[in-house]
Sequence to fold (1112 residues):
Amino acid sequence: MNGALERKLLAGFGLTAVMFALAFGVALDNSRQLKNNGSLLLHTKEVMDGLQTVSGLMIDVETGVRGFVITGQEAYLEPYRQARPGADEEIQQLKQLTADNPVQQKRFPELERRVTTQLEYFDRVLRVAREQGPDAARKLVASGEGKEGMDAVRKQLDEMRAEEERLLHLRQQASDENDRRAGGIQLLLGTLILASLLGAYLLVRHHLIQRRQAETALRESEENLTVTLHSIGDAVLATDVDGRVTRLNPIAEKLTGWTQAEAAGRPVADVFIIINEETRARAVIPVEKVLATGEIHGLANHTVIIARDGTEHPIADSASPIRDKKGDILGVVLVFRDVTEEKKAEEIQRQLAAIVESSNDAILSKSLDGIVTSWNPGAERLFGYPAAEIIGRPITRIFPTDRLDEEPQILARLRNGASLEHFETVRVTKDGRRLDVSATMSPIKDSAGQIVGVSKIVRDITERKQAGKVLAEFKAALDEHAIVAITDTHGKITYVNDKFSSISQHPREELLGRDHRIVNSGHHSKDFFRDLWETVLSGRVWKGEIKNRAKDGTPYWVNTTIVPFLGQDGRPVQFIAIQADITGRKQAQDELDRFFSLSLDFLCIAHADGYFKRVSPAVTDMLGWTPEEFLARPFIDFVHPDDRLATLCEVERQVVAGEPVLQFENRYQHKDGSWRVLSWKSVPHEGGMMYGTARDVTEQRQTEQQIQKLNENLERRAAQLEEVNKELEAFSYSVSHDLRAPLRHVQGYVEMLQRAADGQLSEKATRYLKVISEASTEMGQLIDDLLDFSRMGRIELHESRENLERLVRDSIKRLEMTTNARNILWKIGPLPDVFGDAALLRQVLANLLGNAVKYSRERNPAEIEIGCAGEEEERVVLFVRDNGAGFDMQYAHKLFGVFQRLHRSEDFEGTGIGLATVRRVISRHGGRTWAEGKVGEGATFYFTLKPATNSQTSKASS
Amino acid sequence: MMDSLKRILLVDDSPRDTELALAALEEHHLANEVVALGDGAEALDYLYRRGAYAGRSTSQPAVILLDLKMPRVDGLEVLRTIKNDPALKKIPVVVMTSSREESDQIRSYQLGTNAYVVKPLKFQEFVDAVMRVGVFWALLNQSPSGSVPNLGKH
Fold:
């Protein structure tokens, strides 16, 4: 601003101000006076009104009383009633109004007294009128007392009114004087002011004209600046040299939260609040530095501006000095911008780069002519080429030779702006491996929307392909192995494999759309299937064995697993049943169960925990307990106390030591309390199980005990027999040796006697000697036969195959040496070979044939037949028949006894030992002997012998 | 006892058998050739020239006719001793016994007897048997040990 103008204006305004002040003082004083006078005038008026009112009231009271006294009617009393109550109050009010006036105050007690007296008078008149009648009252009135009182009141009031009027007049005069004086002063002052103002106006007008011209230029510049500042995308904040804000553009207003108007003149630090993004500490505003150095300063990085409302924005900025034409610094301009978006974009850019960088997929790009332009690490991993090696090279490097024609087609499509998604093909790695890949390709457009290249994301799907293949193989394997059916949630069959069709004998089309009742065998209860459906409908897997029926009625068993396939909502959408044909196993199990139930032996499965897990029904037959009773208690409970330790040892041996097969016996208690001896055989199985069978051997053991006892007896007997035999042998020996010697001596000496007598003995003596000799010979024969017989019983048998017919013929030949010329018809039937001791058989034949010859000597011809009469008990029955003397069957039982004879020795000589010997020999061969005969008609002697078998060889042939 | 050479040593506990045997041998004039002893013990004393026979000549009999069942030392014992003694084993021994027991025959042959003769019951057969044995063994048999059969006296 122009200093001269300013001084002139200042002087002018100063003078004007003094004059104004004087004028104002005059006016003020005048006004005060006026106000004072006005107030006094108003007060006086009020007092006068109060006096008038009291006067009025008094008159009203008088009027009322007077009317009532005259008329005696209450209605006339109304004015009195109206006025009387306010009279006292009015007096008091008047007293207060006149409190400022000492003159009036002095008069007031008199007025008060007179009014009070007068009012009391009226009251008294009224009372008299009521109590003593109107006449009395009239009298009172007539007394003049009332008139005097009333006059006194009036007089008093008038005096006071006069006083007030005087005061009013005085005050009016003073006020007028005042007005007149003030008016003069004001006129003078007003003129002076006008002059000043005129001067100032002219001055200012001149200045304003100048100013307007400058302002127009400035405004244009300012508008220009403002528009510029508004147009700047960055926030701009300017300060003066003191660091006070002078200007904010709208963006700065937004970021700081301050408006230009609010911020102007404030220290920059109040408006521009910045902190370090990380430390949250106040950051230095470089205004002071700029002011001090005049240099441009940037803000520190990571600076955040906090707006007035607390919102924060990351900013980047700089501070520059503002200089005038002379180069003096006028202030500082801070230019800053919100970098939030920038940072976000940067972050996104970074993330995208990281994604590309870290992607397992190969991400690459190529130009439209197929040259690789970018290549991420994923691509390097997948194809083996480092980026440096392939960027700038044709993409066809990763194409297998048989797919090179793909590239032109792909490029053609992409040139048209189309994308290619999940294009599955094959590519080759650097080291020549072929990869199954899935590629997604999109055109890359420049900012003008022109297609300049292709981006490509390639994924290795070798494993997925492999997995798909594996899955298909799994399905094939499953179909090969299992019976498979899929049903929906209503039980309708939606899929069956060939095996299902095959086992059920229903063609697929008969099954699809039907439910599984088509193969229901009726074997299972409704509860069974209800449980099945509840399980799978609740999303759980059901496992079990089902008996189905094929189309032709054949039942078959399937081990079944039903797996629900769950939908998005977790509820089953369909069920897959995987089944295995276990018919064979079931049948085998049934058979096994049948055998298990059938077994006479008690079969069981026991566990190392001391309990039977399964027992066959035989347990009831054997021990009386039901299987349930038997399973309910530890098995050792049933074992005889004396056998428990041994039983536990055996179990221990098998379960712990792994003894493969156990055989032992112990005693179990029958339900009836008796003890049964069980013979056990058991084998161990996994998990501490033992499979065992038990047989009741109680009777067997008892029998064995008896047999043992018998055997012991037998052995004792045999020993006794042996002893007896030995004695017998010694006896026989003795007989053989000692009995014979005397006989020989008898014969010897008889002979020597005859020789010594030398023919001198009488005939009689000679005959005697002959008898002695014959008797001793017989006795010798007897002894020999007895010894033979005895030997038959003792000697060892040497059995072999013997030709019986030959033995018979030999025997006959020997006999014929003594039969001389006898006429004997021998009949020898076909005879089998037999098994026996040849020497003893010869003895038998010699005796039997000898007897036949002997007892048939009276016959001519004698007929002797040797034959075979058939078989009994695997033995051949042989016989020797003659037509001789025969015998009485009555004595048949005596025939084979030692020394038993049925004929006198005078008739037939013999010792009576022959048949006994026969019987003994045949007995020793295990056969029997018997005889049939009739006196005079001959006899037949039977004996049985073992026939020779083919495997036996004869002594002769060997 | 004569110290002269006797060719036949007859050992039998039965005087009757001895008498009958001597009677049989007498018929062939062999009786003088016989030394008859009553049991096995005497026979062994004789053969070993001890006891009563300590002073006899060293010559041994041409044959010994030996009964089996005898008191003191029985015939089988005598047989075993003779056949186990190299000096005696070459003397022929003929068992003459009443026993027809097979076991006796087997035992005798096992012990090395030169013959086994069951004394026949009939006197004539007995005489024949003794005579044949005596003639055969005492006169005909050539034995490497003992005396040379004396045929001159016949």
The first helix of chain A runs from residue 3 to 71. The radius of gyration of chain A is 82 Å. Residues 437 and 461 of chain A are 5 Å apart (CA to CA).
